[in-house]
Structure formats: C-alpha cells, structure tokens
Design a protein that fits this description.
It is a single chain. This protein is an alpha+beta fold and 810 residues long. Helix content is 16%, strand content 37%. It contains 13 helices and 47 strands. The strands form 8 sheets. Strands 1, 2, 3, 4, 5, 10, 11, 14, 17 and 18 form a 10-stranded antiparallel beta sheet that branches. Strands 6, 7, 8, 9, 12, 13, 15, 16, 19 and 20 form a 10-stranded antiparallel beta sheet that branches. The longest helix has 17 residues, at 436-452. The protein starts with a strand and ends in a 5-residue tail after the last strand.
C-alpha cells in the first residue's frame, strides 16, 4: 500500500514494498519522477553488497521544525540485512516551499565493520547499457506517456522535447555550464596531470556523447517546453554528492548519489547523510535556481549581511607571479595610496612567491629577508587590509614539513603519496588532515599568519587536496567530512574578524565558513589556454586551465551564487596594455567582473598603469550589489545574454549584456522578448561604443560586435516630452553615479557622485534644446548628438551639481 504526502505544489507517493518513490507537480504538464529507486552499496568481509532496505520494519508520519519551516515527513525503517545494516529513509515536504527533501540514517547493528561505497538517492531511467539499437527499441515501445520502463522514469516535461543538462563543477576551476545530447563531457586534458585538480576523483569521467556528470546539484531541462528538474544536495558536510545523466529525448536516465568513500562504519556506529533536494523549475523564471540556492543558504544559517561588504583591492600574482620581492610590495602600497581617492583600494594581498617552499610558510626567500609581518604593518599604517596567500593543505616534496613528518602525508593503498596534480611546477604532496598533528600544524599556520603577522585577509588555495582519496589516519570519515573538519579549523582559528577566500575548493564544503569563493579558473593574459611547451591546439578543449575564456564562462554561469553563499571571486582584473588580450577582450573581462558584483581585485604593477587603463578600473567601482539574470543559461554552452535590472533617482532601467564568443566579428538581431522585456520603445546607450539611440518595434540590432567582445546597453522606457537620463561613461551601470534627479517645468537638477577626479560624458534626452547648462555654478558647453539626445562633458572632483535650464515644452 502506497503512502502520500502533499503540499500546495507537489505530491509525493511512496511504495514501501519496493522502496521506490514518485513525485508529481500540481500544475498541468508539470515534470515528474516515477518509481525512482534508492539503495546502498557497501563492502563487508571483502564482499560487495547492495540493499534497498526491504522488508520494511516500521514507518511513521509526523511534522518537524527545520530551517525550511515546518516539514511533513515520512520515515521508513528497514529491518537489518544479513550483515546487520539498517537504514532509515526520511522524505519531507515543506509546507511553504516547492521542493522535496530526503535523506538516510544508517546504522551498523552487525558484528563486523561495513565500508560504504555509494548511497543511491535517485535512480530513474533505463540502465546505460540499454542504449544503441536496444535503447531505441525501448524508446519506441515503452517511451510513450503513461508507460514506465524499469527502474523508473524521469521527465522534465510530460511530452518529449530537446533535453539539456546544466552541470555544476566540483570545485572552483571545474567546468560549469550546459550540455546537449550530442555534446561530450568536458574532461581535462593530460590525464593524471590535470584530473586531480579539476574533477572529483571518485566520480566517473564520461567520454561518450550524451553522458554527463555534475557535482552537488544539476538541472535536467527540456528547452522546448521550458521546464526542468533541479536535483542535488543542500550541503556537503557529510558526503560529496554527484549526479549522472544520459540524455535521451524519450527516456533520459538520472542518478543521484552520495559517495561513501569506503568509509568504515564500525559495529554500533551511525551515520546521517546530507539532505537531498529536488524541485520542478521554469527555465525562464526570474530566478530559476533561486529556490535551491536559498534553501542551501538557510541550511547553513547564512546571513546576507555578512556578504554586504565588497572586497576591492590589489594582488601581486598576475604581474610578478612567484618572482615577487618585498620592494615590489612596498612600491605598490605607495602607488595604491597615491591613487586614493580616484580608485579606493581597501586590500593589498601578497600572493605566492614570498615563502621558501610551499609548506614551510615561516621560511622566506632572500627577497623577503624580514618576512611578511613588516609589510602587513605597513599596509595597516596606510589604511589597507593586509592580505596573504597560503596553500595550507599541500606541501612541497622537499619541504621541511614533508621530510620531518612523513606520517602526515596522504597516501594510497600502496603507501605512495597521492597525486594532487601538476602544480607549482612539480608534483607536491597532500596532507592527511584527519591526523591530529597535521591538523594542529594547519591551525598553527593560520594562527601565525593572522594573529602574529597581522593579516586579516587570507586567500587559501588548492583546498581540494584535503579531499583527495587515500588511506586516512581516521578511516571513519568521508572525504567531505575530512575537508569540512579542516575548513572549520581554519575558520575557528582565523576568527570572525578575518576574511577568508577559498580557491580551488569543492564548493559545497566551504559554505558558511568562507566569506568569498573563487568561482572559475585562473584568469590569463590570453583568451585560450596556453602552456609554452605544449602546442596550443592540444590545450584548446581544456575547460579548467587558466584562460580568459574559461574564467568568463564560470563567472557568468555561477553569477547566481553571489551574495547568497559568499562573495563571488571571478579572479583579478588585468588592465595593463602589454598582454595578449585585445582591447575588446579587456572590455569583456572588465564587464564580467563588474557584473559579478563580488571580489574586485587589480593585479597589475600599479605604478605602470596608464591613466586610460586606470579609468577602466574607475568605471566599475564601486561594485554592484545586485546579480544579473542569465537568460540563455540552458540554451548555450557559452551563454551570452544577460539582463540586470537597476533603479535609482532616475527611475528603473535595464542593463543588457551580449557577449561574443566567436573568433570573428558578428552582427546580431534580437527581439526584446529574448531579454524578457515588454514591447515598448526604449532609449538605449551603448557604454563601450558611447552611442545612443531609440529602439522601436521591439527589435534590437547590433552590428560588428568584435571577436570576444561585449556590448553593454542601458535601456530606459521612453517617456515622450519628459527629460530623461540616458547614461554616461562614468560607471558601467550608467546610472548608479546619479544621486539626485529632479526635473521641473523649466529646469533639470542633476547631482553626480564619483570618488576623486572624474571626467567623462553624460547623455540626456531633452524635449527641446537647453538654454544653458551649469556644473557646480560654472557654465559649461553641451552638444547635440542627434535628435533629442544631448551630450554634456563633465569634469569634477567627488560631486557635481548640474542644472539644465529651459528643458520643458510646457
């Protein structure tokens, strides 16, 4: 006999005899999951077992309070299997939120240890080897609505359509984006050199078309019917959760599981998993991932106020790399002070290159004879936040730490140090942070950097190395538990007054412990991956190597996480002219960093920056505190269309962003429906071209968008016979620089505010030519660009009061 629980949006049906479950939406033509299976794979006495927890020993239905308000839940408690494994399966529906939660409670009641391999939360769709001609036969015979092929069925829409899969990468540098049926999973190039620092080592790496992997969460969507299924986990405190999909128009297959990591569950021991999550979404909704992202934030008790303060600063890495000297840092501290208040930098961060070896953090290179503490003191004296780079979980093979403590090193079953990938020009070693002494060493490193040297901002790199598979000192912990324990030790040791930035970190493990997160691969001074000894064509397909293309993709596709889980760090701005980036590519990256609204850090040698390049930095400061809507996130592997809605004294306006991923200039024509805007007439100003026009007929036409370039347009609905602010080149928002807009019958009062010396052009629409224009009491000139549009050159310090006389037809 099946059991059912419902809320206003969903109906859950459970079959206790087969341990399968189904989920249906209340709306017509809603996605659905039918007869999905659960189960546990484990090893006992060197034999692999699989159990689905039948027969059922007990079941109960009740209500509990949670971060997601009241949950109505059903519990199934299985009888012990032949090895004494018991698991409790809990399904819950919130009364007010449109999603399903479920998890497992596992207990070993037997006499022998059990080693957990895989915890299956959802298995739906035909088994993968039934593809080919046999799969096509199943599709024709059983793939019609209402027929359920074993072991269940999952449909993002009741009617078959073109499917797409949005994949979330395991850590900062992993591929994040959308796949289609004929694509192949974006795996790193060069195998053992790149796999450890780009992919979850225990997750399959598919190679066939239509077979894909995601970590923590994913979306299976129907792009024809614009509906989808979002599935994942609310946290990665206990396990790393993975999603595997085979795309097929009639019978897609989806598996959701938590990795057991061969953790040992001793007799009498218990384990509770993280919550699994599933919801049905509308692909074109204003915030399609919002329900899940907000649920994760509630689960971790995140407070938005902790992410209100932006990070704006300078980093040494992308100019000096590891050849940095203390003199270089002193010069840039002085230069940053001299740039105030035109460019107000709060942070000065020393990156890699000061330490003698990775792991020996208190031993310094000859270029840092006095260490880094005097530099931190100098930064504080000048009013900057001192920042420092560390890679605490990894050590160089020749470091004193590695030589003195071989028992701290994470090793495989042959007692060989595990492979963390090719980094620092070598193969370093990862620490086993379940070893108490190794974890104490991490606490000591963090305590020294923060409380002795005086750094209140830490960029912590290569954190994935704590989650590599290996034989740990404590085999009763999963990789996720070991990593979370180490990250918590850092958070606790650093203290609440220290800002922590995670880099190269599995995303879910850092939520609630780090204030900022790198969300893409390293930026580079080239569009594509480049590594000098290797021919470029061999690297082009690598999705995680340093390259502007790779960083841009992740910056866009992970934009929705900003100020909800942490401050997004898209990586540094590169503004100097002597790179391999074209002017259009520089504009593209400046726009992407601006849209990210998170961490904004320059990384050029400040004394060498020209005034023209410094103006680029001025134009995106202060950072935005809003997040853009990615419109084609499930329609293109390299999405290009974003809309950001802003408001201020001049009213509400829309920023439209179009990226050109092509290697050639392109012309585009878009209906405004694509941007989910009403069919009105709009004033439009193009920031990078400095051109304005009126859009009529609901069609936007742009010619010759440069290769790898961007168009940034401010659109404001036309109000005939009324003065309107159109935009400026003072700030990329084209409106946030305005602090007052007061039109009257005869005049317009306009006030601007920009830090330091500001020089540029503002553009207005006026019903008739003005009689005169004054700026801070001084009469200035103006120009008419074309019918009704007037350009006013402005130059001021900090604030400008502009009065435009005689602007009304009244």
């Amino acid at each position: 006999m099946s059991l059912t629980i419902t809320n206003d949006n969903l109906q859950l049906v459970l079959n206790p005899h087969t341990t399968t479950w189904s989920l249906f939406g209340s709306a017509l033509n809603s996605p659905f999951v039918e007869e999905a299976q659960v189960g546990i794979t484990y090893i006992c006495n060197n034999v692999r077992f699989f159990t689905q927890g039948t027969p059922i020993q007990g079941q109960q239905k009740d209500h509990i309070q949670s971060p997601h308000e009241t949950l109505e839940q059903i519990k199934f408690i299985s009888a012990p299997d032949k090895n004494g494994l018991v698991f409790e399966l809990v399904f819950a529906l919130p009364q007010t939120y449109p999603f399903l939660l479920w998890r497992m409670h596992i207990e070993n009641t037997g006499s022998r240890p059990i080693y957990l391999e895989r915890l299956d939360f959802l298995k739906a769709g035909p088994i993968p080897h039934s593809r080919g001609w046999w799969g096509r036969l199943i599709s024709r015979t059983l793939g019609q609505p209402g027929k359920i092929p074993h072991p269940g069925i999952i449909r993002p829409s009741p009617d078959p359509g073109e499917l797409a899969f949005f994949s979330n990468g395991w850590q900062s540098w992993s591929f994040n984006g959308t796949y289609f049926q004929h694509d192949r999973n974006c795996n790193p190039q060069f195998g053992f050199l790149r796999y450890p620092n780009s992919t979850n080592p225990t997750t399959p790496r598919p190679k066939k078309a239509g077979h894909f992997i995601s970590e923590m969460f994913a979306v299976l969507g129907d792009v024809n019917h614009r509906s989808g299924i979002l599935v994942g986990f609310l946290s990665q405190k206990q396990h790393f959760g993975s999603i595997e999909v085979w795309l097929h128009s009639y019978l897609p297959t989806l598996h959701l599981w938590a990795c057991g990591d061969h953790m040992r569950l001793d007799p009498g021991a218990k384990l509770e998993t993280d919550w699994a999550y599933l919801s049905f979404i509308h692909l074109d909704g204003p915030d399609p991932l919002g329900s899940y992202i907000n649920a994760v934030a509630r689960e971790h008790d995140l407070k938005p106020t902790t992410m209100d303060r932006p990070v704006v600063g300078w980093c040494s890495w992308y100019h000096f790399y590891n050849t940095i000297t203390s003199e270089d840092i002193y010069r840039n501290i002085e230069a940053a002070e001299g740039l105030r208040p035109e460019i107000h930098l709060d942070l000065i961060q020393i990156d890699d290159g000061y330490q003698a070896r990775v792991g020996d953090w208190s031993d310094f290179t000859p270029s840092f004879q006095n260490g880094v503490a005097p530099l931190a003191a100098k930064m504080r004296t000048k009013g900057f936040t001192p920042g420092l780079w560390l890679a605490p979980f990894v050590v160089h093979r020749s470091s004193q730490v590695a030589r003195a403590h071989p028992d701290w090193i994470l090793r495989n079953r042959w007692k060989i140090p595990v492979n963390p990938g090719y980094i620092f020009g070598t193969f370093p070693m990862a620490l086993d942070l379940t070893h108490p002494s190794a974890l104490d060493y991490i606490r000591q490193v963090i305590h020294t950097a923060v409380h002795q040297w005086g750094f209140s901002y830490l960029k912590l790199d290569f954190l994935y190395t704590a989650a590599l598979p290996g034989r740990r000192n404590d085999p009763t912990l999963t990789r996720a538990q070991a990593l979370r324990k180490a990250l918590y030790a850092i958070h606790e040791t650093a203290g609440e007054d220290t800002t922590l930035l995670a880099c190269g970190c599995p995303l879910g493990s850092a939520i609630g412990l780090f204030e900022a997160m790198r969300i893409g691969p390293d930026i580079s001074d080239r569009w594509r991956p480049y590594f000098k000894p290797v021919p470029s064509f061999l690297l082009n397909a690598d999705p995680g190597m340093p390259a502007m293309r790779n960083a841009l993709r992740n910056t866009i596709t992970r934009a929705a996480l900003n100020r909800r889980w942490w401050l997004n760090d898209p990586d540094c701005l590169l503004l100097r002219p002597n790179t391999c980036l074209s002017p259009a590519e520089v504009q593209t990256w400046v726009t992407a960093v601006f849209l990210s609204g998170g961490v904004t850090v320059l990384s050029d040698d400040l004394p060498q920056l020209t005034p023209e390049r410094l103006r680029l930095a001025q134009s995106l400061l202060p950072p935005l505190n809003t997040t853009p809507c990615l419109l084609d996130w499930l329609d293109n592997q390299h999405p290009s269309l974003l809309r950001l809605d802003l408001n201020g004294p001049t009213g509400t306006w829309h920023l439209i962003v179009i990226f050109n991923w092509e290697d050639k200039d392109i012309d585009v024509v878009y209906n405004l429906d694509v941007f989910q805007l009403p069919q009105l007439e709009y004033h439009s100003r193009n920031f990078w071209r400095g051109a304005s026009c009126q859009i009529s007929g609901g069609v936007l036409t742009l010619n010759a968008i440069p290769s790898h370039g961007v168009e940034l347009l401010a659109l404001r609905p036309v109000h005939p016979d009324q003065p309107q602010y159109i935009g400026s080149d003072l700030h990329l928002s084209q409106g946030r620089e305005v602090t007052r807009w007061q039109p009257s019958k005869q005049n317009v009062l306009l006030e601007l505010e920009r830090p330091g010396h500001a020089q540029g052009v503002i553009e207005l629409y006026l019903p008739k030519p003005p009689q005169s224009v004054s700026l801070n009491g001084q009469r200035i000139n103006w120009e008419i660009s074309h019918s009704g549009y007037y350009s006013i050159p402005v130059e001021f310090r900090d604030k400008a009061r502009i009065i435009i006389h005689g602007t009304s037809n009244t």
